[in-house]
Amino acid sequence: MRDATGLIVLRGALARESAGAMSDRLWEFLAERDAIDRDDPSTWPLEAPTGFQPVTHSGAFREVGGEPLGAALDALFGAGRWARPRWWGRPLVTFPAAGEWELPVRGWHFDFMPATVEPRPVQYFAFLNEVRPRGGGTLVLTGSHRLVAAYLR
């Protein structure tokens, strides 16, 4: 882990084919539920859609927790010192907005677990498609782990 950023990058942790299948399943779900057409940006909402429990609970994201991630968690915590979650993944879907991108002033939140939770939680992001600069995606504040450590002290 990089102490300065608090991030580890696991390139290739998710096979391109698996990511494509997960992305396809999300688009199918959005088309069925919200009439969002993958090929028609005019149908894309400005806000981030929620309510993906049916897809999550279907096992569509099982591949997220494959061998590369398991090996990384074993290396980080020790083999057998972490528990596989019942459901892998919760989609965070954002659509690109028109106009010039600016750093958001709203919507920031803090994923935090008390110091008594063991093993320490890990936030894992798997990108299913290319995320172009200013093209959507979730922002992560690098170094925020130091803010949490200061808070705990």
Description:
This protein is mainly alpha-helical and 153 residues long. Helices cover 29% and strands 0% of the residues.
Strand runs, count? 0
Question: How far apart, in Å, are the first and last alpha carbons?
Answer: 21 Å
Beta strand %: under 5%
User: Largest beta sheet, briefly?
Assistant: none
Q: Give helix and strand order, one letter per element, not per position.
A: HHHH
Mean pLDDT: 83
- Overall, the morphology is globular
Q: What's the alpha carbon Rg, rounded to whole Å?
A: 17 Å
Number of helices: 4
| pLDDT < 50 runs, ≥5 residues | none
Helical residues, percent = 25-40%
- Given helix and strand content, the structural type is mainly alpha
In summary, what is this structure?
The protein contains 4 helices and no strands. The chain has 153 residues and is mainly α.
Please name the defining characteristics of this protein:
153 residues, mainly alpha, single chain, 4 helices
Q: What is the topology?
A:
Elements: H1 16-34, H2 53-57, H3 67-77, H4 144-152
